[in-house]
Specification:
Blueprint lengths: L1 E7 L4 H15 L3 E6 L11 E9 L2 E2 L1 H9 L1 H5 L3 E6 L3 E4 L5 E3 L7 H7 L4 E5 L2 E2 L8 H8 L1 H6 L3 E2 L3 H17 L4
Parallel strand pairs: 1-2, 1-3, 3-5, 5-8
Antiparallel strand pairs: 3-4, 6-7, 9-10
This protein binds flavin mononucleotide.
Flavin mononucleotide binds next to helix 1, strand 3, strand 9 and helix 5.
Length: 179
């Protein structure tokens, strides 16, 4: 069982999530590799897919959405899971846990339906606006007063949640193996 974990990441947070998912699948005895969508030449030869994107302005990054749409037929014929990385730590709930305050990306439902995704999961992301790599538009956005609450800086990725989700995928796939 050869699994592709394909991702689109602007600053590396989503890449880290994809790599942790691939590691978790490998430790469950499955053969998994994490690759940026842009470097995937063909989806042939993979038995299952986990595809994820960072969310920017309420949508997936274009290259990830295009990857799903372009390969729709091949992906729909195999088990597929989708994930988004985006929300930053928000107000805490009564147990002191961060709550995800940013909405599910607008295109997630359409993309999930297109490939009959078994699940779409939204993970907390990471963001720092002192990165040299951020463009002018992002710098401008992150300085707006509204962004200070919606986009607090930090690494909010929840590794136990990511590993638990990936372990669920491993269980699903292992259960479908013959014998
Ligand atoms: C300009 C800007 C817009 C963003 N828009 C959203 C959004 O609409 N929804 C969301 O959940 N997160 C949003 N985020 C947070 C990012 O998705 C988060 O930082 C993500 O983990 C970044 O992943 P990456 O490092 O792989 O690019 C935004 C961040 C920036 C800087």
């Amino acid at each position: 069982m050869h699994i592709l974990v394909a991702y689109a990441s602007r600053h590396g947070a989503t890449q880290g999530i994809a790599e942790r998912i691939a590691e978790t699948l490998r430790s469950a005895g499955l053969d998994a590799e994490a690759l940026p969508v842009a470097s995937v030449k063909s989806v042939a030869g993979y038995d299952a897919f986990v595809i994820g994107s960072a969310a920017y302005m309420f949508r997936w990054l274009k290259e990830a959405a295009t990857f799903v749409r372009r390969n729709r037929a091949a992906l729909a014929a195999k088990p597929v899971w989708l994930f988004s990385s985006g929300p930053m730590g928000g107000p805490t709930d009564t147990q002191g846990r961060d709550q995800k305050v940013v909405a599910v990306p607008k295109d997630a439902a359409e993309l999930s339906e297109a490939v009959y995704a078994r699940d779409h999961h939204v993970f907390f992301g990471a963001y720092s606006n002192d990165r040299k790599s951020i463009g002018l538009a992002e710098r401008f956005m992150s300085l707006m007063p509204a962004a200070k609450t919606a986009l607090p800086q930090g690494d909010f990725r929840d590794w136990p949640e990511i590993e638990a989700w990936a372990s669920g995928i491993a269980r699903d796939l292992t259960a479908s193996l013959p014998g």
